[in-house]
Automatic annotation (TrEMBL):
<dbReference type="InterPro" id="IPR022664">
    <property type="entry name" value="DapB_N_CS"/>
</dbReference>
<dbReference type="Pfam" id="PF05173">
    <property type="entry name" value="DapB_C"/>
</dbReference>
<feature type="binding site">
    <location>
        <begin position="98"/>
        <end position="100"/>
    </location>
    <ligand>
        <name>NAD(+)</name>
    </ligand>
</feature>
<feature type="binding site">
    <location>
        <position position="37"/>
    </location>
    <ligand>
        <name>NADP(+)</name>
    </ligand>
</feature>
<keyword id="KW-0560">Oxidoreductase</keyword>
<keyword id="KW-0521">NADP</keyword>
<comment type="function">
    <text>Catalyzes the conversion of 4-hydroxy-tetrahydrodipicolinate (HTPA) to tetrahydrodipicolinate.</text>
</comment>
<comment type="similarity">
    <text>Belongs to the DapB family.</text>
</comment>
<feature type="binding site">
    <location>
        <position position="35"/>
    </location>
    <ligand>
        <name>NAD(+)</name>
    </ligand>
</feature>
<feature type="domain" description="Dihydrodipicolinate reductase C-terminal">
    <location>
        <begin position="129"/>
        <end position="263"/>
    </location>
</feature>
<feature type="binding site">
    <location>
        <begin position="165"/>
        <end position="166"/>
    </location>
    <ligand>
        <name>(S)-2,3,4,5-tetrahydrodipicolinate</name>
    </ligand>
</feature>
<keyword id="KW-0028">Amino-acid biosynthesis</keyword>
<feature type="domain" description="Dihydrodipicolinate reductase N-terminal">
    <location>
        <begin position="1"/>
        <end position="124"/>
    </location>
</feature>
<protein>
    <recommendedName>
        <fullName>4-hydroxy-tetrahydrodipicolinate reductase</fullName>
        <ecNumber>1.17.1.8</ecNumber>
    </recommendedName>
</protein>
<dbReference type="InterPro" id="IPR022663">
    <property type="entry name" value="DapB_C"/>
</dbReference>
<feature type="binding site">
    <location>
        <begin position="122"/>
        <end position="125"/>
    </location>
    <ligand>
        <name>NAD(+)</name>
    </ligand>
</feature>
<keyword id="KW-0457">Lysine biosynthesis</keyword>
Length: 265
């Protein structure tokens, strides 16, 4: 499978490049970085600190290399992801997008592209987060109406979006399990709102140092609470998952795929 990585010097892009380079089922064909970066034209292996040359370049124009790939892996910014999406559609290339921070309209563009290309969107490519999502679905279905539900997520100081894509997805999963729409339940940054409004889901975001990612969901009852938590120690679990998603698309027809399909959850 021939792979292009967008943002190969980013936290995720670098790891994805390193992991893809180590996989026998993948061949990297280029990295795509923003115009003006001093590593444009450099070997992708050097730029992404793989430790050896890959014999393919980092370019600043996706369109100049897109013909040579089977799949594009995008963990960049919401602006660049939209550019990548349109080019993937134009050239009929499979796309894995793990970028977060999109509006509902932008998410709809990913779903629309699925009639033309194999499209996999995953706000979180960690296996254990997606197992946690299954647990949340069960718990919300059983006790969601009774509990005060609060989501707390922690990330590094550089993260561009809040709340995290994962926490938004967790809220949606729980709302659906309760037969509701998250737009009717969500309260962002609850502090200040007292007493707590019953039947809502609160979101709390904390940004500090280089915390890779933590998500906790609290189900508050009278006299007891249930907490379900995932911590990542670094970003490797997400990068491995991203490469598994790309490999999953190898023989797929156009359609909208999710990490749940990849993990068979
Ligand atoms: N789905 C998942 O499991 C995960 C998703 N993410 C998401 O992935 C995204 C990236 O996260 P990080 O790697 O931490 O960010 P980062 O800031 O370290 O990397 C972003 C990369 O995108 C590149 N980029 C920006 N504009 C570009 C353009 N016009 N052309 C080419 N490249 C461009 C930057 O040069 C940079 O290398 C975020 O939205 C984050 O929330 C992060 C971790 C896991
Ligand atoms: O930016 C990150 O780091 C992460 N972003 C994703 C999100 O917004 O949920 C996934 C994971 O939490 C890491």
């Amino acid at each position: 499978m021939k792979v292009i990585v967008v943002g190969p010097r980013g936290k995720m892009g670098k790891l994805i490049t390193q992991i893809a380079a180590s996989r026998e089922d993948m061949q990297l064909v280029a990295g795509v970085a923003p115009e003006g970066r001093d590593y444009i034209g450099m070997d992708l292996g050097q730029a992404a600190l793989v430790g050896y040359d890959l014999g393919v370049p980092v370019v600043d124009n996706l369109e100049s290399v897109i013909d040579g790939c089977d799949v594009i892996i995008d963990f960049s910014t919401k602006e660049m992801a939209m550019v990548v999406l349109e080019l993937a559609r134009k050239y009929k290339k499979a796309l894995v997008c793990g970028t977060t921070g999109f509006s509902e309209e932008e998410m709809e563009r990913f779903r629309a592209a699925a009639s033309e290309i194999p499209m996999l969107y995953a706000a979180n490519t960690s296996k254990l987060v997606n197992v946690m999502n299954k647990l949340l679905e069960i718990v919300a279905e059983k006790i969601g109406e009774e509990a005060d539900i609060e989501i707390l997520e922690m990330h590094d100081q550089w993260k561009k979006d809040a709340p995290s894509g994962t926490s938004k997805e967790m809220g949606e999963i729980m709302a659906h399990a309760m037969g509701k729409e998250i737009s009717d339940l969500a309260v962002y940054g609850r502090h200040g709102e007292c007493p707590r409004e019953k039947g809502t889901i609160g979101y709390h975001s904390l940004r500090a140092g280089n915390i890779p990612s933590s998500h906790s969901v609290y189900f508050g009852f009278m006299g007891e609470r249930l907490e379900i938590t995932h911590h990542s120690y670094n970003w490797e679990c997400f990068a491995r998952g991203a490469c598994d998603c790309a490999a999953y698309l190898a023989d797929k027809a156009p359609g909208f795929y999710t990490i749940q399909d990849v993990l068979n959850l």
